[in-house]
Amino acid sequence: MRVCVLYSGGKDSNYALHWAFLHGFQVECLVTLKPAREDSWMFHYPGIELTRLQAEALGLPQIMVETSGEKEKELEDLKEALMLAQDKYSIDGVVAGALLSDYQRMRISLVAESLGLKSYTPLWRKDQASYMRWLVEDGFRFMLLSVSAMGLDPSLLGRPLETHDVEKIINLAERYGFNPALEGGEAETLVIDAPLFSKRIEVEGEVRRRGPYEWVYVIYSAKLCVKGAADANR
């Protein structure tokens, strides 16, 4: 099965990509939708430009299509991107990292079906707390780029999350009522290293406050770095 992976650079699309490789799919390319606005209904916004570095680290070609970010109009842009992947790489299916959003999963499936493509969402309805633990256990290094929920500590921003950080997020989610896998927009993530990455990403930036419970990590610079022994042993 020749597939593309809908790729935002966050934890979910990276784990879906990982799943595709482990299950014998032939991943032909990454497909990234770049929203023109932060409040996109369908697509990830923070750090989207860094997907170019991630694609290089993965050794995979990338199709990036700009999207208006407007509800429903985004679907036309998604269809255009998938058609490009069909034409260039003869894909048979699309893999996405949807976790809980019926809106997102159904629309990806409908667009894929209209093009004769099979749709795969391997993370759909997985236990959210367990999934967060899997990420760290399976060697994914990711950071939070934004937090926007009561209880989420801005000290979690801009650094790779360790096991104790994930447990902290899970405990806070139970206490404050947000999704432990941050699926509801409570936070946005960036993967800086993963088992399939040939290099890791190093970023520099600063934390800024936007509101009572809203903080962002603004990235000033990012570069690919050679992995060391410590990275391989994580």
Secondary structure: elements and pairs:
Elements: E1 2-6, H1 11-22, E2 26-35, H2 51-58, E3 62-67, H3 73-89, E4 93-95, H4 102-114, E5 118-120, H5 128-137, E6 141-148, H6 163-176, E7 187-193, E8 199-211, E9 214-226, H7 229-232
Parallel strand pairs: 1-2, 1-4, 2-3, 4-5
Antiparallel strand pairs: 6-7, 6-9, 8-9
Helix pairs in contact: 3-4, 5-6
What labels would you give this structure?
234 residues, alpha/beta, Rossmann fold, putative n-type atp pyrophosphatase, domain 2, 2 domains, 4-stranded antiparallel sheet, 9 strands, globular
Helix segment tally = 7
- How many structural domains does the protein architecture include? 2
Order of helices and strands: EHEHEHEHEHEHEEEH
Low-confidence stretches: 39-44
Find the CATH topology of the largest domain: Rossmann fold
What is the topology, as strand order, of the major beta sheet?
Answer: 3-2-1-4-5
> Helix/strand-derived class?
alpha/beta
Overall pLDDT metric: 90
Query: How does the major sheet shape up?
Result: 5 strands, parallel
At CATH's second level, what is the architecture of the largest domain? 3-Layer(aba) Sandwich
* Strand runs, count: 9
Overall geometry comes to globular
Using only C-alpha atoms, the radius of gyration works out to 17 Å
Q: In CATH, what is the homologous superfamily of the largest domain?
A: HUPs
Q: How much of the sequence is in beta strands?
A: 25-35%
Proportion of residues in helical segments: 25-40%
Q: What's the CATH class of the largest domain, please?
A: Alpha Beta
